[in-house]
Design brief:
single chain, about 200 residues, alpha+beta, OB fold (Dihydrolipoamide Acetyltransferase, E2P), 3 domains, five-stranded mixed beta barrel, 10 helices, globular
Length: about 200
């Protein structure tokens, strides 16, 4: 099983690349959100990708699908749990950042989901029914991208997000916004208790 590849970019096409690693050329499918990273890149660069390896009785020829990081790969694996979304359809659908898709799922935003390539209204509704309430990690990842969060703060954010949603009944996206505002006011927060205090100080 191949889970990660690092090598030299040999060729780039619309939806796939050829990557040379250890004298073997691997053809790797890339979702649009990953391919966008390579828009201004020329063959010859060193590239690293997390890989989803797909092979079944119906699809005996192995397919490699590449992602920028393990968060994107994990989201992809959630997405293919949805009825009627197989790996190839999921690859085409991932044409906007995963935190935007996660937010749309949590907000029951069918309009945004139907803008994804190949996703109709019925499939969008299945995405919400299957995945709503499971998107916390991907919204937390957005916080890590957009706010200079310390590595020591990651666990406390996950803890507070879970409590806000599961115990206090906030929507996931609402909980995320509360955490964002609190951290922007005080980035020195180091415990869940301090984060709760800052959240409710701001709400008050």
């Amino acid at each position: 099983m191949i889970g990660y590849i690092e090598g030299r970019l040999l060729k780039k096409e619309d939806d796939r690349i050829l990557l040379l690693a250890n004298q073997v050329g691997y053809e790797i499918l890339l979702p649009t959100l990953v391919m966008n990273r390579l828009v201004n890149q020329e063959p010859g660069i060193t590239l690293s990708l997390y890989i989803y390896y797909h092979q079944t009785e119906r699809q005996p020829k192995p397919i490699l699908i590449g992602f920028n990081d393990d968060i994107e790969k994990d989201f992809f694996q959630f997405l293919i749990l949805v009825e009627d979304i197989g790996p190839l359809k999921a690859v085409k659908a991932l044409d906007i950042p995963i935190h935007q898709i996660a937010k749309a799922i949590e907000d029951d935003d069918i309009t945004t989901l139907t803008r994804l390539k190949g996703i109709g209204k019925r499939t969008a509704q299945k995405m919400v029914a299957t995945l709503q309430g499971k998107m916390e990690r991907f919204l937390i990842h957005e916080l890590q991208v957009n706010i200079p969060i310390l590595s020591t703060q990651e666990h406390l954010i996950e803890t507070v997000m879970h409590v806000l949603v599961q115990q206090f009944g906030h929507k996931t996206t609402e909980a995320k916004e509360m955490i964002v505002k609190a951290l922007k006011r005080n980035l020195a927060i180091s415990t869940p208790e301090e984060l709760f205090d800052e959240i409710y100080r701001g709400e008050g």
